[in-house]
Specification:
By secondary structure, this protein is of the alpha/beta class. The chain contains four helices and 29 strands. It has two domains: 62 residues; 266 residues. Helix 1 packs antiparallel against helix 4.
C-alpha cells in the first residue's frame, strides 16, 4: 500500500514554517513596539519632577555617569507625576553633556519630557519610557535639539505625542503614539529626520504632520497608521486649515514617505489597495509603496494555507487510492 505519511509530514512542516517565520507584517510591528510589559523589569523609584539647567545639575541630583559619550548621565527607573499645568515631568536645557532618559514612567498634566536649548547637539537619548497625560493637553516629548534619539517610548493621551521644533537629524523609531487629541507626531521646521517603525493610533487629526516649508529631506517608512484623522478638517499652527483626506500631512520639501531602496512604504488602515497613498498638504507628497493594515491579515493567510494544504492531501489520497485499486489483481 502506498503511504502518504511523508507528504503529510512535509506539509505540516511547511505550515509550521509559515506560522513561525512568516513576516508578520503589521502584527509583527505591533508586537515589536508593545513595550509596556517589557521595560519595567525593576522597581520604579518615585521622584519629584526634574529640572536640569546646567551640566552640574546632573551630578547635584545624583545621576550616574560623567556626561561623556561613553559614560553619559543616566536618568532611569523613575516614576514621576507632574501636576503643573505648564511644567514637565523632566525638563533639560542649557547643557553640553551626554545623557540618557530611559525606563521611566511619567504622568504629566502638560509635557512629559522637554529637551531644549542644550548647547551641544547629539547629546540626548530618550528610550523605553512610558509617558501618560493626566489632562489631555501638552505633549509627550517636546524636543528642540538636533540629533536626538527618541526610541521605543509609549506615549498616550496628549495633544501631540512627539513634537520636534527646529530639531533636525533626529531619530524617531519604534514608538507607540496613542490617543493624541491633535497630532500623533509633529515634525516642525526640522529636516533629515528618520521616522520609522512607529505605531501611531487614534489621533484626532493627522498621525504625522511635517510642518513648515523648511522641513525637508525627512524620511518616513515602516510605520503603522491606525484610525487617525478622525476629524473632518485640520488646523496647522492656528492659521492653515483644510479638509482631511489622509492620515499624513506634509508642507515641507523633498520629504520621502517610503523606503526608496527597498520599495517599502507605511501601513495605512484606510488604504484602498489601489495605487499610491496621497498625503495631505501643499507638498503633494505620496507614499509610493503603501500597504493595507488589517489586524486579520496573518489569520486569513494561515487559514488559506491550511485549507489549500488540506485539499491537496485529500486529492493526493484519492489519487493514490485509485492507483492502488488499479494495481490489485
Amino acid at each position: 500500500m502506498f503511504s502518504i505519511s511523508r507528504y503529510v509530514k512535509f506539509y505540516l512542516l511547511f505550515l509550521m514554517f509559515i506560522v513561525l517565520f512568516l513576516p508578520l507584517n503589521n502584527s509583527t510591528l505591533n508586537a515589536k513596539n508593545d513595550y509596556s510589559s517589557q521595560i519595567f523589569n525593576t522597581s520604579l523609584i518615585e521622584h519629584s519632577p526634574i529640572v536640569i539647567n546646567s551640566n552640574n545639575d546632573f551630578s547635584t541630583l545624583g545621576f550616574d555617569g560623567n556626561g561623556s559619550l561613553s559614560n553619559p548621565y543616566i536618568i532611569e527607573n523613575l516614576q514621576i507625576d507632574s501636576e503643573d499645568i505648564s511644567g514637565s515631568a523632566i525638563q533639560i536645557g542649557g547643557t553640553t553633556d551626554y545623557f540618557v532618559i530611559r525606563n521611566c514612567k511619567l504622568f504629566s498634566a502638560y509635557i512629559g519630557i522637554f529637551i531644549q536649548n542644550t548647547n551641544a547637539i547629539g547629546t540626548a537619548q530618550i528610550i523605553n519610557n512610558t509617558i501618560n497625560s493626566s489632562s489631555g493637553n501638552g505633549g509627550g516629548i517636546g524636543c528642540g535639539v538636533g540629533y536626538t534619539i527618541l526610541e521605543n517610548n509609549t506615549i498616550s493621551g496628549f495633544m501631540q505625542g512627539i513634537h520636534l521644533n527646529y530639531a533636525s537629524h533626529c531619530t524617531i523609531k519604534g514608538n507607540n503614539i496613542l490617543l493624541s487629541y491633535y497630532q500623533g507626531i509633529n515634525v516642525r521646521f526640522s529636516s533629515f529626520t528618520e521616522v520609522t517603525s512607529n505605531i501611531i493610533k487614534n489621533s484626532n487629526q493627522h498621525g504625522l504632520a511635517i510642518v513648515g516649508s523648511l522641513s525637508s529631506y525627512n524620511v518616513i517608512h515602516h510605520n503603522i497608521f491606525i484610525n487617525n484623522s478622525v476629524e473632518l478638517t485640520y488646523e496647522i499652527d492656528g492659521e492653515r486649515t483644510g479638509e482631511i483626506s489622509s492620515q499624513g500631512y506634509d508642507e515641507g520639501e523633498n520629504n520621502l514617505w517610503f523606503d526608496e531602496e527597498n520599495q517599502h512604504g507605511n501601513w495605512w488602515d484606510d488604504y484602498n489597495k489601489k495605487g499610491v497613498y496621497n498625503i495631505d498638504g501643499p507638498s503633494d507628497s505620496i507614499d509610493e509603496y503603501p500597504l493595507k493594515y488589517a489586524e486579520s491579515n496573518k489569520t486569513n493567510f494561515l487559514i488559506s494555507v491550511s485549507l489549500i494544504t488540506f485539499i491537496f492531501i485529500i486529492c493526493l489520497n484519492k489519487k493514490n487510492r485509485i492507483r492502488e485499486i488499479n494495481m490489485e489483481p
